[in-house]
Write a structure and sequence with these properties.
alpha+beta; Immunoglobulin-like; 8 helices; 20% strand; binds copper (II) ion
Length: 328
């Protein structure tokens, strides 16, 4: 009974995990599609064999004497007990290794390289030129052009993290002192959620990010915008916000290119207003959530490296948040 129950549960699991957001069952790129194929072959093959074994066990327990004699024949025992598992398991091994090798070998010459460094508990992202020198830095978001292979260099600044965007690729650990490589390929434009997949401390669950796949022209426009320094605010309210940012030592931890703020401890904020989310996928990005984060970051993500700043008046907080939101 319990065997049957666990089998039913097993059949249900994929359907529970089905969904629009962040799912390995809905591949949207070459590598993810290959992984999904391997998974289905193993799952369906395993299920068929499981059913066959249960039927044989049923015959052995409840069959007539004649049926049981058939089961006890030496050919069946050697064939079903030795030859079949050896052949099937070897074939599956070769199949999954071969697919894995294709998956690494294909797209062998990536045109774009992005470095992603796991931090407690967010993602430092650096776009690199063809010689591997950084073009600019951003955080918690990767933009990639649709249909092209992007190589992601994965590192860690502290503990082991793991980089996983289920709709686009497999999961690879980010290990301190070591560089792992992963190919990202998106077949269609979209916003794909990723998640740290290796427990890395108290706020591990709030260490997510987004991969935004765009058509080449939009992507190129984004790239050239990111390389620019921050916009000079025209509005006095935004200028006040910038002054507050500079006067309250936000720049000790954050960089805003084009200002004196050049801190390296926290995410780079030069174009923070254009990102999909803040605090590593924890909150949507708008002036309200930015204000909430500044005044209550320790309530939202306890233990993270940014202190809560509760010295600001409502007006000051609004100006500060509006300034950051304006950094598109
Ligand atoms: Cu992590």
């Amino acid at each position: 009974m319990s065997v049957l129950f666990s089998f039913l549960l097993l059949c249900l699991t994929p359907s529970l995990a089905w969904g629009e957001m962040q799912s390995a069952f809905e591949p949207k790129g070459n590598n993810a599609a290959e992984i999904a194929d391997i998974m289905w072959v193993l799952f369906v093959g395993g299920s068929l064999i499981f059913v066959a074994v249960i039927i044989l066990a049923g015959i052995a327990l409840f069959g007539t004497n004649a049926q049981r004699h058939v089961l006890a024949r030496q050919e069946l025992i050697i064939g079903g007990g030795i030859v079949f598992p050896v052949v099937t398991l070897s074939a599956l091994l070769v199949y999954s290794f071969a697919s894995g090798a294709i998956h690494i070998g294909r797209n062998a010459a990536p045109q774009e390289r992005i470095e992603v460094i796991g931090e407690l508990w967010w993602w430092r992202v650096r776009y690199l030129d063809s010689r591997g020198n950084p073009l600019f830095e951003t955080a918690n978001e990767l933009r990639i052009p649709v249909g092209r292979a992007i190589e992601v260099l994965l590192k860690s600044g502290d503990v082991i993290h793991s980089f996983w965007v289920p709709n686009l690729a497999g999961k690879i650990d980010m290990i301190p002192g070591h560089v792992n490589r992963l190919q990202l390929h998106a077949a269609a434009p979209g916003v794909y959620r990723g998640q740290c997949a290796e427990y890395c401390g108290a706020q591990h669950a709030k260490m997510a990010f987004y991969v935004i796949a765009q058509e080449q022209t939009q992507y190129d426009a984004w790239l050239s915008l990111q390389a620019q320094p921050a916009l000079e605010p025209a509005d006095p309210f935004l200028l006040h916000g910038r002054q507050l940012f500079l006067d309250n030592r936000c720049g000790q931890c954050h960089a805003v290119r084009g200002t004196q703020a050049a801190g390296q401890i926290g995410p780079e904020l030069t174009h923070v207003g254009g990102r999909h989310a803040i605090a590593a996928g924890t909150l949507p990005n708008n002036s309200g959530t930015i204000a909430g984060w500044i005044s209550g970051s320790q309530q939202i993500k306890p233990g993270n490296r940014m202190p809560s700043f509760n010295q600001f008046s409502g007006e000051e907080l609004r100006a500060l948040a509006a300034y950051l939101e304006s950094l598109q």
